[in-house]
Amino acid sequence: MKIVEATYQVITPLFLGGANVEEKNPELRPPALKGLLRFWFRAVALPQFNTWPAVWEAERSLFGSTAGQASFSLSVNNQSKFTVVPVGEQWHKHGAAYLGYGVVDKGKTVRPYLKPDGSFTVRLVLKKGVSEQDIALLIQALKALGLFGGAGARSRKGFGSLSLKSLRLNGRETWCPPTDAASLCQVIREFFREIGIDRAREEIPAYTAFSPKARICITQTGRDAFQLLDEIGKELLRYRSYGRSKGDKHVLPWGEDAEQNFAGDHDIIQEYLNGRRITRHPRRAVFGLPHNYFFQSIKQKAAVEAKNYTRRASPLFIHIHALDRNGYAAVMTLLPAAFLPEGEQIAINCPDRRARLQPVYVDQDIDYEVINCFFERPAFNAKRVVWP
């Protein structure tokens, strides 16, 4: 029997539903952590197995399925320094509020969250017979969670960022936390050597996973994790937003003129709401679906979503990582993959029945260069390129 223990520090507000969701009492539960571990297992396994059927076979063996139990038990221990912040906290940071859409509304939190700086340990007790390769894959998944990911709602937008602080195999420490941006860069590159990303197939994966097409940068460093998150949110808002009408111009929430980099997206939806024929979807759909619009001038909404799927999560992962001396680094990761299943269309519709507009279905034409261009923003001129 082998035991793997990974200790994580919570770096940014963590919005997580507890066992009783109606009471909105956040807590860290084993099923949620197991789900995260499964996600990152798939991400790290693909470069090593190269095909989804091979990954699925390994996943079934380790995590269990209807045909059999998991090869390990998982518990969440040593939860410390966790403080629950109730609903209704006012946030005066436009970037953080933008990234927190869904858990933050009009500058106020609408769900409770766990305050940063708490820590917890994920403990895996592996059954006899688990191979060394499978143990290595589980350890890689634990590392990926603590280098690129987070827990809870809006985790891909940087909330609930988790920094791996300790990793023990049968009580022996195997992890040396990065102390600065340079060592974080080195740790991530070493991790990529472990999973063989440079030897993986060149094509875009069928699902969200590490591949040669991935892009990872350490965009900024600073002394305030939440401020870093807010700065990325403001930069994303500058890049994506058409702005709100104010006199003869359009402005961002803090009064800055909107760049309107995607005016064409605005025009597509406006044409749809005006009853004109459209044949393409907004370019910003690549950031994830659903993608919502509101036209203040006509008080009308529109939604861009998959025809047969509820949502498609963003391929862009924002992660804030803890360094030494109260320092933090912002890590942005792009994991391109098949956006929607082949043949699936993107729907544009108006939820207001009074508008009498029928949904329009267009073929998906996803351009990951839209997100690549975000990496090149002036705010990230000092970035460290980790991969490629």
From TrEMBL:
Pfam families: RAMPs (PF03787). It comes from Thermodesulfitimonas autotrophica. It comes from the Bacteria. Signal peptide: none annotated. This is CRISPR-associated Cmr1 family protein. GO terms for biological process: defense response to virus. Keywords: Antiviral defense. The keyword Signal does not apply. Residues 8-163 form the CRISPR type III-associated protein domain. The keyword Transmembrane helix does not apply.
